[in-house]
Design a protein that fits this description.
Layout (H helix, E strand, L loop, with lengths): L7 H8 L4 H19 L5 H8 L2 H84 L8
Helix pairs in contact: 1-2
Length: 145
């Protein structure tokens, strides 16, 4: 194997980033690889024997159903991964920025509570001063004899 030759794994990695078209090409390559590797078409007599009996027909139907289910599952998984991965990354970035804003708001709350306490103390002092001024300015009542 030279450095220029690509393996099935390298091709599959490059096609995963292309979306549904890349997935279709990847599955086609995979199917061709399986057919060539295991020589499926050199065993036609096996399929003929299976097709001649009811049990064989049931086994064939179940096998085809399982293969279809697997293909559907992986196709849906790759599609969901390609569609929702960017959405999830965006939501995680938004979550991080919102967490930073919450931390900043908590700091502001602490500062505002400190200012509130200072203002409440100032209000109490002013109320005390006002009450003292009223006592000083209270008219002295003259007693009539």
């Amino acid at each position: 194997m030279g450095s220029e030759s690509k393996t099935l794994l390298d091709c599959s990695r490059s096609y995963l980033n292309l979306g549904s078209c890349g997935l279709f090409v990847l599955l086609s390559w995979w199917w061709l690889f399986v057919i060539q590797r295991y020589n499926f078409f050199s065993f036609p007599q096996l399929f003929i024997l299976l097709a001649q009996s009811v049990t064989g027909a049931v086994i064939t139907i179940i096998a085809l159903w399982l293969v279809a289910a697997l293909i559907g599952y992986f196709t849906a998984w790759f599609y969901a991964k390609s569609v929702y991965s960017p959405v999830i990354k965006g939501l995680e970035a938004d979550k991080t920025s919102l967490n930073n804003q919450v931390a900043g708001l908590k700091d502001e709350i602490v500062i505002l509570k400190g200012n509130e306490e200072k203002l409440n103390d100032t209000i109490k002092k002013l109320e005390i001063e006002k009450a003292e001024k009223k006592k000083r300015k209270a008219p002295v009542k003259k007693i009539k004899k």
